[in-house]
Amino acid sequence: MWRQQFARKAIAYGAATTVAGYAGYSYYKQQAGPYARTVYADPLETPTPPGMRPHAFWTPPKRVEMLNDLKGLERDGSAKAADEREYDLLVIGGGATGAGCTLDAATRGLKVAMVERDDFASGTSSKSTKLVHGGVRYLQKAIMGLDYEQWKMVREALHERKTFLHIAPYLSNELPILLPVYTWWQLPYFWIG
Hints:
This protein is mainly α. It has helices at 2-30, 63-71, 96-107, 136-144, 148-167, 186-192; strands at 89-92, 112-115. Strands 1-2 form a two-stranded parallel ribbon.
């Protein structure tokens, strides 16, 4: 008898939590701010204004043109002026970190060059999920093993995620995910991490 009552209450609380969470998420998405919508640049403009993505019809320069640019040559092979030959920053590696550093520096107005041995994001960056999560696995280690160091790492990861979403909202967005929950105590457990 008491198990049925407890199960009904758990289902009712779970349903209420789900509805409240969805309502809060919907409200948050409406209040997301200027980065909620993608704004494309005019395809006829040669330089793309800062903060805007290139249009879908934009084609990247050819390899020879990029190599000439790195060597300090014009597209036709003639030498550039001395002030146009220097870069403010050279990023080595075109993975997730290198591409993020390049984008961040370019949006801050620096002249950036990025070099990559193979194709961009073809190494470790192509093998990972690219999810900026709170560390559910480490949270489990912290709770089940009563490990304070793991707890500190989860808190730091959540703080970094919040900072990343605040200072670079154009690089990431929230992804709703559906997790199977088999016991009532997993609801707050997954909600935290």
